[in-house]
């Protein structure tokens, strides 16, 4: 739904002062509408700030669908879409961009905001109006519908190219928004409305680079370009077909059930066989109350995690509530799909390690990286190698790393892998250090529900707090809901933005992904995400920080009912907040990307005692979220000790059932060679060295200066055009006298040096 995150944008600060036109806008002809939009564009260039703001509000009214002339929500959406394409066709976006740049460079407003003790909505009115219009234009044009006109499809592709091209002061539009984020976090512009900037930045990246489905298509084309075999499955389809599992019962629950059975009470489930990890066992959504995990008694005492039971913290199935089905007979399970959801994978490194171990055992010597010679090895080893090679998977990242190693050995070679076809390269090549990860993490920390307010932290509530604070209980409750919703939207935008950038950069080149990942790790992104999940996660996902009657366009089409404290406290009718669930999944995926195949970062998860925190997240019965929690638990299982594995066999079974297998991965036993002492510094330094070599080779313009050929032709050298400063012709004669005529030339010395 178009207005899902900007639903209250038109309530508190964008009431419009629209220009009057003869008749109703929806009854005007196309030419008349274009004529009035042209008049608005001309009026945007006036010097009077108040008049310019009035015109901008009129344009916002058009982008919001002239809701005063509509009778239903559908009519508002229809006219909003029609008007947005009309505004883009008339060049409104370019005019708005010039105004946005002017507001960004308004030093008077920035200095005034820095000196003010408390910043409110009134300090960013112009910026909020401009960003609201631009967000509506980007999001409306980005979404495709079946009834789009041919000219609209053409306009969509043109707008997409325009946003991704360096047309705005030599930079893409997304870099301009990144600059706003950096200025805000550096306290140089504390009045910037960050929620709107982050939402617009996320949608711009999503529009210009593409979403997850487009990433999957680009990955398939990239593998074809490198002559790699196709992917074993479509990960998006596999995850969509997965079903959520019931979380394992904790030790406290088992003790309570045993006590209830002894007292003759009716138990919720028999204790003989706990089928708590059955993927399809969804008969009772309230099987287990929230209690502490098996290992939380000892570990949470050290990490400070509260263990109280919350009545809201229940393992509810996150899916549309179906009517309760009757209990299925056991024979019905035979019709369920069999097998594991993922095809197993094996790396070339794993095959080499297996052969090295086998040769040392049976022959007594190794053959290096040779994976073909099997002489002297028993027949079962031959079969094992054959099976491993059948499931061998070579990623695009491995090919890129191998190519970089070859190019580093050929310093004079100018041949390199062409990355211009990837959309992320346009953003990265323009400015290799364009993404300020620390600024995004500062905003994420300030918006996290577990964060405590500090005097030196940035103020992310500048575009939600009114000039006059509420004086009644109803106003206070409304403001409290708006503040919580404001923070949730910021977390959603940052998590989606970071994940999207990481995925695009990894597909573009693995070392571009690694430099951003390393910056995130050094900026304490791993403990920040763990701190985010160190809360009552079920309460966060079931939070109701929204007011349905104030959602746009409902609030401007229908009659506004009277708000009471009871109606605000009841919230909406949705059982879950999909916005918060989306944020949690994104943060888990970011954590997976930062720690995958990184031994030192995996050990950080162990050191920060993430296992009990992640196990509590399994209580959310949503398949995708459970999958990424289980992935994070799998990579650290070998370091958690035998006792943890013994007392968490239900979790181990869930990992086996849902997470992809690596055929010779000893994740469940802790016998892997990677279980070596933690050497964080050496691993990260080696990675940083490879990254710097890549950046120097690809983005350093003077990289081959010492290897450049020397021009020995006198005529060619004298014929080269030399750029001289503008004022050089004024002092040309003085320069000749000082540098040429008054300097004696030692011709004999020059001849001797030449010899």
Automatic annotation (TrEMBL):
Compositional bias annotation for Basic residues: 262-271
Residues covered by the Far11/STRP C-terminal domain: 378-732
GO biological process: cytoskeleton organization
Biased composition (Acidic residues): 291-310
Listed Basic and acidic residues bias regions: 280-290
Far11/STRP N-terminal domain residues: 10-278
Protein name listed in UniProt: Striatin interacting protein 2
């Amino acid at each position: 739904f178009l207005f899902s995150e900007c639903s209250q944008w038109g309530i508190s600060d964008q009431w419009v002062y629209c220009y009057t036109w003869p008749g109703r806008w929806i009854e005007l002809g196309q030419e008349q509408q274009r004529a009035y939009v042209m008049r608005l564009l001309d009026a945007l260039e006036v010097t009077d700030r108040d008049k310019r703001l009035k015109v901008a509000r009129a344009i916002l009214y058009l982008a919001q669908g002239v809701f005063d002339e509509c009778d239903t929500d559908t009519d508002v959406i229809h006219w909003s879409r029609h008007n947005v394409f009309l505004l883009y066709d008339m060049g409104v976006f370019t005019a708005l961009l010039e105004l946005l740049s002017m507001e960004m460079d308004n030093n008077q407003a920035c200095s005034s905001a820095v000196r003010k003790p408390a910043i409110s909505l009134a300090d960013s009115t112009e910026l909020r109006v401009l960003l609201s219009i631009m967000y509506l234009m980007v999001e409306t044009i980005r979404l495709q519908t079946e009834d789009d006109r041919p000219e609209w499809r053409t306009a969509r592709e043109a707008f997409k190219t325009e946003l991704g091209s360096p047309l705005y002061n030599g930079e893409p539009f997304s870099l301009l928004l990144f600059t706003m984020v950096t200025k805000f976090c550096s306290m140089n512009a504390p009045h910037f409305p960050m929620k709107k900037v982050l939402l617009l930045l996320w949608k711009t990246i999503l529009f210009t680079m593409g979403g997850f489905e487009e990433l999957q298509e680009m990955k398939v084309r990239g593998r074809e370009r490198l002559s790699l075999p196709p992917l074993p499955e479509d990960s998006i389809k596999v995850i969509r077909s997965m079903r959520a599992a019931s979380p394992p019962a904790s030790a406290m629950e088992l003790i309570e059930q045993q006590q209830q059975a002894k007292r003759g009470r009716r138990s919720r489930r028999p204790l003989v066989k706990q089928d708590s990890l059955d993927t399809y066992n969804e008969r009772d959504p309230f099987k287990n109350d929230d209690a502490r995990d098996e290992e939380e008694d000892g570990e949470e005492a050290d990490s400070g995690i509260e263990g109280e039971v919350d009545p809201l913290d229940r393992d509810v199935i996150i899916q549309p509530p179906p009517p309760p089905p009757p209990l299925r007979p056991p024979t019905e399970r035979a019709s369920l799909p069999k097998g594991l959801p993922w095809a197993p994978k094996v790396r070339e490194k794993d095959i080499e390690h297996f052969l090295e171990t086998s040769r040392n055992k049976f022959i007594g010597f190794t053959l290096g990286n040779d994976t073909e010679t099997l002489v002297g090895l028993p027949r079962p080893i031959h079969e094992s190698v054959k099976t491993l090679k059948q499931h061998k998977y070579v990623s695009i990242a491995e090919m890129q790393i191998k190519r970089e190693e070859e190019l580093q050995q050929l310093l004079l070679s100018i041949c390199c892998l062409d990355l211009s076809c990837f959309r992320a390269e346009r953003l990265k090549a323009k400015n290799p250090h364009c993404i300020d990860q620390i600024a995004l993490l500062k905003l994420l920390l300030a918006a996290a529900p577990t964060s405590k307010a500090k005097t030196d932290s940035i103020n992310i509530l500048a575009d939600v707090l009114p000039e006059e604070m509420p004086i009644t209980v109803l106003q206070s409750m409304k403001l409290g809901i708006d503040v919580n919703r404001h923070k949730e939207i910021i977390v959603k935008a940052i998590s989606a933005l970071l994940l999207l950038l990481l995925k695009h950069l990894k597909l573009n080149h693995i070392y571009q992904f690694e430099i951003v990942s390393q910056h995130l790790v050094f900026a304490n992104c791993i403990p920040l995400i763990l701190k985010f999940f160190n809360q009552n996660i079920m309460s966060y996902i079931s939070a109701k920080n929204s007011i349905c009657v104030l959602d746009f366009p409902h609030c401007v089409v229908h009659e506004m009912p009277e708000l009471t404290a009871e109606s605000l406290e009841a919230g909406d009718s949705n059982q879950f907040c999909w916005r918060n669930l989306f944020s949690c999944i994104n943060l888990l995926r970011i954590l997976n990307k930062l720690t995958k195949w990184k031994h030192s970062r995996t050990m950080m998860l162990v050191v920060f005692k993430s296992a009990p925190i992640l196990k509590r997240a399994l209580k959310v019965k949503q398949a995708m979220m459970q999958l990424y929690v289980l992935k994070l638990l799998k990579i650290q299982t070998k370091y958690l000790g035998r006792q943890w594995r013994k007392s968490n066999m239900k979790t181990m079974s869930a990992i086996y059932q849902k997470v992809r297998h690596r055929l010779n991965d000893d994740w469940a036993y802790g016998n892997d060679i990677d279980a070596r002492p933690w050497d964080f510094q050496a691993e990260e330094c080696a990675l940083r060295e490879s990254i710097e070599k890549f950046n120097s080779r690809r983005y350093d313009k003077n990289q081959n200066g010492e290897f450049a050929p020397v021009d020995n032709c006198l005529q060619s050298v004298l014929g080269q055009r030399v750029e001289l400063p503008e004022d050089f012709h004024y002092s040309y004669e003085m320069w000749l006298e000082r540098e040429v005529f008054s300097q004696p030339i030692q011709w004999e010395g020059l001849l001797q040096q030449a010899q």
